Give the backbone structure.
Amino acid sequence: MTPILELDHISKQFPGVKALNDVHFEMTTGEIHALLGENGAGKSTLIKIISGVYAPDAGTMRLDGKDVHFNDPREAQARGIATIYQELSLYPELTVAENIFMGHAPRRKWGPFSAIDWNAMYEGARELLASLNIHDLDVKRKVITLTVGNRQRVEIAKALSLNARVLIMDEPTAALTETDVQRLFEIVRLLKERNVGIIYISHRLQEVFELADRVTVLRDGQYVDTRQVADTTEDDLVRMVVGRTISDLFPKLPSEVKGNVLEVRNLTRKPLTKNVSMNVRSGEIVGLAGLVGSGRSELAQVVFGFTPAESGEILIEGKSVQIRNPGQAMKMGIAYVPEDRGTQGLVRQMKVRENVSLAVLHSLTKGAFVDRPAERSLAERTIKQLNIRAYSREQVVNKLSGGNQQKVVVGKWLASKPRLLIMDEPTRGVDVGAKAEIHRLISELAQQGLAILMISSELPEVMGMSDRILVMREGRLVAEYQRDEASQEAIVAAMMSDTDMNKTKAVESYAV
Amino acid sequence: MTALETPTTTPEKLRVNPIVQSLRRLLGSQEGILVLVLLVLMAVVGASNPRFLSQNNLTDVFAANAYLAVAAIGMSMVIISGNIDISVGALVGVMITLSGNLAVGLAGMGWPLWLVIAISWAAPLAVGMLVGAINGFFVAYLRIPSIVVTLGMFSILKGGLILVAGGNTIYNLPPGYTLAQQSVLDIPVTIYFMVILTIIAFVWLRYSATGRAIYAVGGNAEAARLSGINPRRIVMTAFVLNGLMVGVCGLMLATQFNQIQATAPPGLELFVITASVVGGVSILGGTGTVIGSTLASVLVKAIGSAMLFINVSPYWLKAVQGTLILITVLADILRRRRQSRQ
């Protein structure tokens, strides 16, 4: 079989990150080719290059053996490359047929005038859907009334109406029910028979084995390998995805673990927090691992009262409490360093001083006004303690580097003197130096008796920093490991696999 | 690494001539630019027509339009909180009509004069806070965009006003009612109102926890909420205080002359928004000061007056206002873009 699409030595650099480095990828017609990798491994960047969203900095891309350069997604589409993103890109207020033929509706001419030929469009839409074995979808229905599974089918029909020869599907099963997944697989196999090449991105390993012919693994922007699925095992793939060994970048200091600071029982808030029970003790760092969308941040936000729990119990130092909003959580001694410091952590136009004092304004207030000397000395202390590199406490935070902005957010929460510190991706988008500083700080805080719940997508960080590791998948806690019994392979398997091999164990160990 | 790249360099090494530095800081702020423009305007126009600088004219510029600056204080708070209020003009119309009718009516019923005046002066403030609370409730608690809520309020108040008052003129105001005509130490009370309220609002916004929270909510409501601030209560507070400021504005306008035109002053809300924006209050929320908005309202009125003195048709004033808005918003957007690129 001849390759329809070939990428050689592809590199792509973003400010501060090498997203792809010398990556190779090829696929043949009628192949289902899975693309695997951790969050941030470079999968999204690669498909965006193939679909013309980004231009590569280096390397060549060949379609049917000829070099191609796409200036924008339209050019890629015109050459038969269609992409179905996780967030479907349909127009909810338009009908199924209108969505399928958006931009290339059949037209009818009367002399110099032309208009959309509605009958031809409805007929064409019906034919396309029928060719995918979909007979139960009314082409005149508005897309907003459809289920996620049906919307996805509309997307696939739309891709076919553009005569797609390469179809990229980015985690197509992430939001689907089991029946919808089976129907999707049928459609994908149908497309394969019609010689469409399919790039299939998924975190679920068994889907790869069920569906794909070949699999390519990326890690940290590097090409790892391409294998025939038939010649590989789940263990092989997990090892390829994880790859690294834990460096000693993570200075975990010994600390004395004492009683429970936080305990939650059967905490539920749909859709992404389902019956979660766990605890965090004084002096302990608990790492919370899981894929993006597995419900880790959602759990943190339920505990913090940002999105209060629907049912279940929260205990702080053994006492059952109600947490309905962040203010109440703060009174209980909980602090939450959010995942996205830009939209959730900082008020960018404000100064370092004003950001650091934001969570403790009321305790800093004397009479009617904020106690300025106290506020200034708080800012000075924080800058010193966290080694924040700013011209002065009066500098606007927007002008600081990512690492220093992150330190400001952490400083803001330390100012509230918490007993439990929840950190959501504490080192995302932070350079290596600042990262090590933040890690040392986390360790020191635990040593001082703080209970720390650390959410991270970086396995080495989770494994290097945590006393105990919890794994979430699809809103549930599915595994728990002590520091010495955790391995990257086991954690990745728990994050990705659908078999609940560790579930019973996690529940049992919790019950003790 | 050079000194430029290491912010850790001690501040002492970076310190330049302190006079140059404070000058730079002054001109780096919107307030400084406004003062400078105002001074240049007075010098240039005063040179071509000295009567522009006469006490009568300056009193007119500062005192007769002080009510606009007071309304702009409230508007600035609302805009800083990330919202806008376009019901101000109609609200002022309701206030002055109510105040005037109360004064005439209650006096006619033989109530004691002090009580009549107290009630008719207090009425605009109470109505302002009530309407502010209603606007604030819809915006903060029902999460309807402020531009829609206050547009609705604008129509309701304006329509109601025409139905009830029909654009009449209210005469025979009781003696002692005309507060805004008074002077203390030869300075009209309206100037005291403008200056004192500007200072109080400035200090409160900058140095109180709630004032700081208004900036935080306007700058990033989600971060503020995650920091334990209740954004709804803050937005509500901004709207109620805006209502109070509009109430003072209404009081000043009602008591300015010996009769009251029972209509909404046309274009008032647009002028007030202009003053806030030109004063450096970012239309995107989160930054700006009421000193800026007060200076800007004085400046825009001074430009209007200057046009008369140099024989330019005052109809150009609208175009000048519009140009000023576009320039300041453009400067604000460019500033933000430059910051977020860093």
In short: The CA atoms of residues 339 and 364 of chain A lie 26 Å apart. Chain A touches chain B at residues 304, 306, 325-327, 330, 336, 338, 343-350, 354, 358-359, 361-362, 364-365, 368-370, 372, 389-392, 395-396, 398-399, 412 (CB under 8 Å). The first helix of chain A runs from residue 43 to 50. The longest strand of chain A covers residues 3-14.
